[in-house]
Specification:
This protein has 229 residues and is mainly alpha-helical. Helix content is 62%, strand content 4%. The chain binds protoporphyrin IX containing FE (HEM).
């Protein structure tokens, strides 16, 4: 029987699926004034999660650390070459190519949330709205590439990376595992996320939104064609 090794701690797994959910939530509600509060809450959630992940990339467990997976161009080229062979270079954590997508997703996530926040606080005009939309669209494209990359890597390396992001375990990689899943940090994350969402749901009218109509009072696209209310 193949051995399995613990690679992803609880905070990384919780971060990942919460980030994916908040991105999906923000994307699906992007054109709806009725869902503006929810859209904004998803944006704040994404930003908070990414700020946490940046810290966890410094103090987290072995494979969560940036020093474990951020590599130079040489390593990326070597890995790309190895993909052409029958036995691609094994990586217990993120492979050098996947790591590029991870860094792009973290950067785009923060930039998209920040531009949305600035837009909502009327710090820019139409151009800021354009920037926000472009960032979100680029992020969607990178997410698509990320998912395709994950499926491709899973097939090439004969390991189910998606299941690993749930269980924390990968087959093989003996001696490269982590010993602690950091459940307390994950509980703190759940409490923080839960408190934020409870607060948001009980205070549904951030400045700039008329609660009775749900209309956004700040500058918007002026394009209400897609409104679903
Ligand atoms: C159904 C959709 C998705 C699937 C199946 C998926 C799957 C995965 C898997 C398997 C990994 C680990 C890759 C590895 O072992 O090296 C991963 C990492 C990652 N994914 Fe996704 N992903 C999805 C959606 C997303 C979305 C929507 C985002 C961003 C908005 C995202 C951002 C990330 C990030 C930032 C990491 C690095 C995790 C970390 O190190 O903390 N993923 N994803």
């Amino acid at each position: 029987m193949t051995s399995r090794t613990l690679i992803w701690d609880w905070p990384v797994r919780l971060f990942h699926w919460s980030l994916a959910a908040s991105f999906a939530g923000a994307w699906l509600t992007a054109d709806s004034e009725r869902w503006l509060n929810f859209h904004i809450a998803c944006g704040y959630t994404m930003a908070g999660l990414i700020v946490f992940r940046l810290l966890w990339g410094i103090v987290g467990t072995r494979h969560a650390r940036f020093s474990d997976f951020i590599r130079g161009p040489g390593a990326v080229i070597r890995y790309l070459r190895s993909l052409l062979s029958a036995h691609p270079e094994p990586h217990a954590g993120h492979n050098p190519l996947g790591a590029i997508a991870v860094v792009m997703l973290l950067t785009l996530g923060l930039a998209t949330a920040a531009s949305g926040w600035a837009m909502y606080n009327e710090m820019g005009g139409e151009w800021l709205e354009e920037v926000h939309e472009i960032l979100a669209t680029v992020m969607l494209v990178v997410v698509g590439m990320h998912v395709v990359g994950v499926i491709f890597s899973s097939l090439k390396h004969h390991e189910n990376l998606i299941a690993s992001m749930f269980t924390g375990y990968k087959p093989g990689h003996d001696g490269q595992g982590i010993t602690h899943t950091r459940p307390l940090v994950a509980i703190l994350m759940i409490v923080s996320l839960g408190s934020f969402w409870a607060w948001t749901l009980n205070n549904p009218a951030p400045a700039g939104v008329d609660n009775a109509s749900g209309d956004y009072q700040g500058e918007t696209t002026g394009d209400t064609d897609n409104d679903d209310d």
